From TrEMBL, chain A:
<feature type="domain" description="Dehydrogenase E1 component">
    <location>
        <begin position="19"/>
        <end position="314"/>
    </location>
</feature>
<protein>
    <submittedName>
        <fullName>Thiamine pyrophosphate-dependent dehydrogenase E1 component subunit alpha</fullName>
    </submittedName>
</protein>
<keyword id="KW-0560">Oxidoreductase</keyword>
<dbReference type="InterPro" id="IPR050642">
    <property type="entry name" value="PDH_E1_Alpha_Subunit"/>
</dbReference>
<dbReference type="InterPro" id="IPR001017">
    <property type="entry name" value="DH_E1"/>
</dbReference>
<comment type="function">
    <text>The pyruvate dehydrogenase complex catalyzes the overall conversion of pyruvate to acetyl-CoA and CO(2). It contains multiple copies of three enzymatic components: pyruvate dehydrogenase (E1), dihydrolipoamide acetyltransferase (E2) and lipoamide dehydrogenase (E3).</text>
</comment>
<keyword id="KW-0786">Thiamine pyrophosphate</keyword>
<dbReference type="InterPro" id="IPR029061">
    <property type="entry name" value="THDP-binding"/>
</dbReference>
<dbReference type="Pfam" id="PF00676">
    <property type="entry name" value="E1_dh"/>
</dbReference>
TrEMBL record, chain B:
<dbReference type="Pfam" id="PF02779">
    <property type="entry name" value="Transket_pyr"/>
</dbReference>
<keyword id="KW-0560">Oxidoreductase</keyword>
<feature type="domain" description="Transketolase-like pyrimidine-binding">
    <location>
        <begin position="5"/>
        <end position="189"/>
    </location>
</feature>
<dbReference type="InterPro" id="IPR009014">
    <property type="entry name" value="Transketo_C/PFOR_II"/>
</dbReference>
<dbReference type="InterPro" id="IPR033248">
    <property type="entry name" value="Transketolase_C"/>
</dbReference>
<dbReference type="Pfam" id="PF02780">
    <property type="entry name" value="Transketolase_C"/>
</dbReference>
<dbReference type="InterPro" id="IPR029061">
    <property type="entry name" value="THDP-binding"/>
</dbReference>
<dbReference type="InterPro" id="IPR005475">
    <property type="entry name" value="Transketolase-like_Pyr-bd"/>
</dbReference>
<protein>
    <submittedName>
        <fullName>Alpha-ketoacid dehydrogenase subunit beta</fullName>
    </submittedName>
</protein>
């Protein structure tokens, strides 16, 4: 076996690959099953963006909090939310992560530090400032990570939170997942500055831009700014340039894309292919080992779908439950 | 020990006592310390009207001034609540709700339900409400119906210092998000308040005056107008029962219905605008659940369907007066309980 040139040991590399593969398979399966009409409501897929969630979440523990977006499945899986509970939630079942009350856009697992996907763009930024404040008050060295797309990076909530986090010196990392499209609108048109690093500088914090399709680039940049935040160094912004393999939501005809664009990004910017090729080429992990992970993941997702479809739906009494702790 | 203090002092005292009792209680807001980062004295203001004055000296950094970013810091209070703290966030004037309402009604109010009963968000958002301060259209509103409409929120609006202290202590201890509405024109009003800590449970109205002829239901400032009206009516031999709701969500339906079943007449007084407010809500509930007991049409006395005007001559017409409440009571006593249509 060749010497490992990567910043992670083999077990951790396999874990990263497994996480990314799980997200991919989860999303590809939803794409198919949504088209069949099996899944109610809105679904926004994270396929193509797996390196970002995974590279960041490898640095976190259950005590660290994340506030996610409408495109949250990848964040959930990378943060350790149970895949069966997620699938059941997306199918609206009572065994779901939110007992079928939340759906795709609201999956949460507070025990894992996952404060919720969020149907309101940019809404996670203030919330994560609060989570980070709680960690700071307790002195538990917890950090908070919030994700926004390039679209929601224009929300007032996001910009206010950058300032608040800087003024209060909170352990927060603001991650801009720049996939080039705010739904259908081009980032180049809708974002007034040339670089998110400039925007971070304007709020008095460091900003870093990385190739979000490169797991190691994300992992290393995130590691540094998360460590800094954990040590009391304050907030930072991380921009991950990445690609979205599917539309804004499932059913989106994506007529706003250039001809051949999807084929091109699938061929050249697939973060999972990029990672697996590097691992195999370096001789650190064999292709057969990756394929074994693929088989395990396929079985996991298959079982999650089977279990979700077999699980009971919420019943009438559930309609009125859990509005308040007490009322 | 009991002594007379103002509602403003009672709120300050409730915050102080709860911060002493529970280290997870933090208080944040614009200028609630006052002067952070400025050259003058620490704790310079203690809020624009001095409600939190003196708390910084006692509790230090657990009181936090914020930038003028209501979405960010109200959201931060909510996020901190979801992570185990009990923040009290001051929104100064609840009219400012417009710039941060998403964090309250789409986030805090929905976490518990949307996350399948697995979240608790014990946050209190407190601030000033109400007209009569010559503060004009954007600093004077009674927006309580916006909050009571939202499942997941609890809404409190005390009418006096005693209730303000006990209800704020309960709000901080409560495990759901609470909107705590403080009528700015009641801040200076004094009454007997025990020095020790006490909590007033939610959903328990206070019957301020017994009477068998008519029930008057209100909350906040207009409770006092209702009491004035009741005193005037008593001179004519009409005994009004006056109910102070204290909490608007949950609301004490039992006390209202029990009273109306005895008096047969209902006047509901609400400083909010006339459409879809507490008055219409209570009138509808009573119409549905105690129709048989009614001897006359239900009367509603509310602010008009206008923004709050600035000029004193107009603002004095805006807030329901004791006279308008007494007139409404007299309408319920007229032979057929006639209720002439009032132009909207």
């Amino acid at each position: 076996m060749a010497q490992n040139p990567f910043p992670l040991g083999k077990d951790e590399l396999l874990k990263a690959y497994r996480t990314m593969r799980t997200i991919r398979e989860f999303e590809e399966r939803l794409h198919v099953d949504f088209a069949k009409g099996d899944i109610p409501g809105f679904v926004h897929l994270y396929a193509g963006e797996e390196a970002c969630a995974t590279g960041i979440m490898m640095h976190l523990n259950d005590n660290d909090r994340i506030a996610s977006t409408h495109r949250g499945h990848g964040h959930c899986i990378a943060k350790g939310v149970d895949v069966h509970a997620m699938m059941a939630e997306i199918y609206g079942r009572s065994t779901g992560a939110c007992r079928g009350k939340g759906g795709s856009m609201h999956i949460a697992d507070l025990s894992k530090g996952m404060m919720g996907a969020n149907g309101i763009l940019g809404a996670g930024a203030p919330l994560i400032c609060g989570a980070a404040l709680a960690a700071k008050v307790r002195g538990d060295r917890g950090v908070g990570i919030t994700f926004v797309g390039d679209g929601a990076s224009n929300q007032g909530t996001f910009l206010e939170s950058l300032n608040l986090a800087a003024v209060w010196n909170l352990p927060v990392v603001f991650v801009v997942e720049n996939n080039g499209y705010a739904e259908s609108t081009a980032m180049e048109w809708a974002v007034s500055c040339d670089s998110y690093v400039d925007r971070a500088t304007g709020f008095g914090m460091p900003g870093v831009t990385v190739d979000g399709t490169d797991f190691f680039a994300v992992y290393e940049a995130a590691g540094e700014i998360i460590r800094r935040a954990r040590d009391g160094g304050g907030p930072a912004l991380l921009e991950c340039n990445m690609v979205r393999f599917y539309g804004h939501f499932e059913g989106d005809a994506q007529t706003y894309r250039a001809k051949g664009e999807l084929e091109a990004i699938r061929a050249s910017r697939d973060c999972l292919t990029i990672l697996s090729e590097r691992l195999v080429e370096a001789g650190v992990i064999g292709r057969d080992e990756l394929q074994a992970v693929d088989r395990e993941v396929n079985a996991l997702i298959e079982d999650a779908v089977r279990a979700a479809k077999a699980a009971p739906l919420p019943v009438a009494e559930d309609l009125l439950r859990d509005v308040y702790v007490s009322y | 020990m009991s002594r007379k203090i103002s509602m403003k002092q009672a709120i300050n005292e409730a915050l102080d006592l709860e911060m002493r009792r529970d280290p997870t209680v933090i208080v944040m807001g614009e200028d609630i310390v006052g002067g952070t980062g400025a050259q003058g004295e620490d704790d310079a203001w203690g809020g624009v009207l001095g409600v939190t004055k003196g708390l910084y000296a006692k509790h230090g950094d657990r009181l936090m001034d914020t930038p003028l970013s209501e979405s960010a810091y109200i959201g931060a209070a909510i996020g901190a609540a979801a992570c185990g703290l009990r923040p009290v966030a001051e929104l100064m004037f609840l009219d400012f709700m417009g710039v941060c309402f998403d964090q309250i009604f789409n986030q805090a109010a929905k976490f518990r339900y949307m996350f399948g009963g697995k979240a608790e968000t014990p946050v209190v958002i407190r601030g000033m409400v109400g007209a009569g301060f010559r503060a004009a259209a954007q600093h004077s509103q009674m927006l309580t119906p916006l909050f009571t409409h939202i499942p997941g929120l609890k809404v409190v609006c005390p009418s006096n210092a005693y209730d303000a202290k006990g209800l704020l202590i309960q709000s901080i201890r409560d495990n759901d998000p609470v909107i705590f509405c403080e009528h700015k024109n009641l801040y200076g009003l004094e009454c007997e308040v025990p020095a020790e800590s006490y909590a007033i449970p939610f959903g328990e109205a206070n019957v301020l005056r017994d009477g068998d002829d008519v029930t008057i239901v209100s909350y906040g400032l207009t409770v006092h107008r209702a009491m004035e009206a009741a005193a005037a009516l008593a001179k004519d031999g009409t005994e009004a029962e006056v109910i102070d709701l204290r909490t608007l969500s949950p609301i004490d339906w039992d006390t209202i219905v029990e009273s109306v079943e005895r008096t047969g007449r209902l006047v509901v007084v609400d400083e909010a605008h006339p459409r879809c407010n507490l008055a219409t809500d209570i009138a509808a509930f009573v119409g549905q659940n105690a129709f048989g007991a009614l001897k006359a049409g239900i009367q509603m006395v509310t602010a008009p369907h206008t923004p709050v005007p600035f000029s004193p001559s107009l603002e004095d017409l805006y807030v329901p007066s004791a006279d308008s409440i007494a007139s409404a009571v007299r309408r319920t006593l007229s032979p057929k309980g006639a209720s002439p249509r009032i132009a909207a």
